[in-house]
Amino acid sequence: MNGNVIKVRKQFKESSILFQSDSKCAVENAIDTVLRHRLELDRFIISNPMFLKALEPIDIDDDAPRVVKIMSAVADAVGVGPMAVVAGALADLALETMLTSKAEIAIVEDGGEIAASSKKEFNIGLYAGKTPLSKLIGFKINPLDCPIGVATSSATVGHALSFGKADSVTVFADTAALADGAATAICNAVKGKDVEKSIQVGLKHAETLQTIRGTIITREDCIGTFGKLPQLVKIESELDLSKVALLEKSSIKTLI
Question: How far apart are CA 3 and CA 211, in angstroms?
């Protein structure tokens, strides 16, 4: 992307959200959208405290705020608690507003969960903790991939609750909310001392989530992929991309 892209980062309580667009109006409207939906979510949680604590899907009333309905629907679809979807849901709502503002480049990143639609290609990096690929590879997102949602869940990085052992699970889907929830669900499935076996279990769980496009799982020196992933790209020049080129041809590969 060129220098005409506006980048604005805003703090919303514990969330730090980055807005990128070619339209200042789109960014401003997206910020207002996140503020409004976040306030509606906070008010809902005050009246419905179990929504905040639930680790599984939970029933909600028909008059619940839209952000709550989105979170609840995705939680039902992938089998996680609704708060596991909050970052992706807010990113989706912000992206929706940007696109109504006729932005040609619209990217929202909320804590690593990305909702994007762009008429120009761009790259996103893979952060996988201490695994060999972390910060070395990424994915090229082109206009044909958009709109797209990308999310990463980790049992070893950050403070998010996880019941699994994966260093990272990155999911590509039609929306950030769906990618967010699916990444959590798949990460929870990667368990056990046998690293390769745990990744295979995660991949099998990913296959049951028919609404996602694809996923990449990393744990220690192994990775596994399922579905259709965007083009793999090199982020750092010292990486020999030939060592990871088999990612697209094999469901699991040891890197070291």
Answer: 35
pLDDT tens figures, 151-181: 999 876 655 556 678 888 999 999 999 999 9
Q: How far apart (Å, rounded) are the C-alpha atoms in residues 221 and 195?
A: 9
- Does residue 249 lie in a domain region? yes
Please give the Cα distance from 71 to 54 (Å, whole number): 12
Evaluate whether 212 touches 206 at the Cβ level (below 8 Å): yes
For the whole prediction, is pTM greater than 0.90?
no
Is residue 1 a part of any domain in this protein? no
**Does residue 172 lie in a domain region?**
yes
Please check whether residue 149 lies inside any domain of the structure: yes
**Domains: count for the chain:** 1
- What domain range is 57 assigned to? 6-254
Q: Phi and psi for 23 in degrees, rounded to 5?
A: -125, 120
Element (DSSP H or E) covering residue 49: helix 49-53
Q: 157 with 169: CB under 8 angstroms?
A: no
> 3-state class of 255 per DSSP?
coil
Amino acid code (one letter) for 27:
V
Q: Find the CATH number of the domain harbouring 18.
A: 3.10.520.10
